Amino acid sequence: MSVNNEIARLTQAVQDHTNETQSFLDKADGRVTEKENQVEQFLASATPEKRFVQKITVGGSSEYLYPVFWRFPSNDFGIGRLEISRHYSWNRGTLHDSHVASLLLSIEGNAYPWSGDTNYMRVKKAHYRYNETASHLQFGGYASRVSTDGNAPTYGSDGTNYLFSGVYLRGGGLDYVLSSNWEFTPLRLDDESDVNSTRVLHTYQNVAFTVSPIPMAEIKAPVETE
To answer: Among the listed ranges 22-31, 136-145, 177-186, which one has the minimum average pLDDT value?
Structure first.
């Protein structure tokens, strides 16, 4: 074999090796890019659900329960999750010097009675200790009907409204935390210091659906539904 042929053979061998190496590197780069995309997709899908936390103080008297109402998100959002809670030692000196009242309500729901979406509420956990603080928890929150024209109400039934869900929380300066996966401002009475205070939630035909304080003697403790 001539020297020129040997050089040509070696040159071709080097080129072949270079091509194989580049092909391997290209495939490796492709696999790395694919893994990077998978990681990015996983991180995007694994983003924690947002949590909106607000602390409220319910005023008035500890002998009354006061309305705290909301509307669950509709199907364009999905399931609304809400926790209403208080630590047992908060507000010492109100109902007790140390063990005042603990509360944990874990709720999920969707929309409202007049909506065309899923329209439900489920109480996943209802627990209290030392003193009761929550009452009348329901989808289509507890409300009274008041005639707006002096005639008998022509729509609905006492004990519900059709736009909001709600609960009644014990007053007297007790603190509660509302933690939800959607943002909302709870509907409350304008003046909780007045036991005769009333709020109109909505009206329909000749009916105003109203809420007002409930005496502790009429408490209806929340019940788990699953």
So the answer is: 22-31
Q: Give 41-90 pLDDT, tens digit per residue.
A: 655 566 688 999 999 999 999 999 999 999 999 999 999 999 999 999 99
SS (H, E, C) the chain: CCHHHHHHHHHHHHHHHHHHHHHHHHHHHHHHHHHHHHHHHHHHHCCCCCCEEEEEEECCCCCEEEEEEECCCCCCCCCEEEEEEECCCCCCCCCCCCCCCEEEEEEEEECCCCCCCCCEEEEEEEEEECCCCEEEEECCCCCEEEECCCCCCCCCCCCCCCCCEEEEEECCCEEEEEEECCCCCCECCCCCCCCCCCEEEEEECCEEEEECCEEHHHCCCCCCCC
- Domain definitions of the chain by residue range: 1-47, 52-218
